[in-house]
Design brief:
Elements lengths: L5 H7 L10 H9 L5 E5 L5 H8 L8 E6 L2 H11 L2 E4 L13 E7 L8 H11 E10 L7 H6 L4
């Protein structure tokens, strides 16, 4: 596997922004409570939290965090959204206590991590009992996960 220079990637790859918020995420947020704690793990520049904010989906009084390994992305996240960024990798977010999150989000991240089970385990650790997880990937074809993880794929 090729080593990735995340600072260089962060400087050169600014992600697109859209106000579209998937209906399943909207429903999860509605069920998460009146002043939920939200975390976007692998937040990048903050496009997801920005879309939620721009469409008035984040209730007043909510605690919102973005987690990323890139300080460049976290600066963009905080600047764009006004919420706190936490520097950590996708496998361990020590700044947040177990069971402290009502809704954990991770979009277009799992296909990039070396240990997807570690990533999902950390998301599960963060979520309170009865909380919600919104996880998505760009891998949408049957069998795509096998080919991504295959030794020759």
């Amino acid at each position: 596997m090729t080593e990735i220079d995340f600072d260089q990637y962060s400087e050169q790859s600014i992600h697109f922004f859209s106000r579209h918020v998937p209906s399943l995420l909207v429903k999860s947020l509605q069920l998460a409570g009146s002043e939920p704690t939200l975390v976007d793990v692998g937040c990048g520049d903050g496009h997801l939290v920005w879309a939620l904010s721009e469409t008035d989906r984040i209730p007043s009084g909510s605690r919102v965090f973005g987690v990323d390994i890139s300080p460049i992305r976290l600066r963009r996240f905080s600047s764009l959204t006004g919420f706190q960024g936490i520097m950590a990798d996708e496998h361990r977010v020590p700044a947040l206590e177990s069971g402290s999150v009502d809704l954990a989000m991770s979009t277009m991240v799992i296909e990039h991590v070396p240990d997807e089970f570690g990533h999902v385990s950390e998301l599960a650790r963060l979520i309170r009992q009865g909380g919600f997880l919104y996880l998505s990937t760009v891998i949408r074809r049957p069998g795509a996960w096998y080919f991504r993880k295959a030794p020759d794929g």
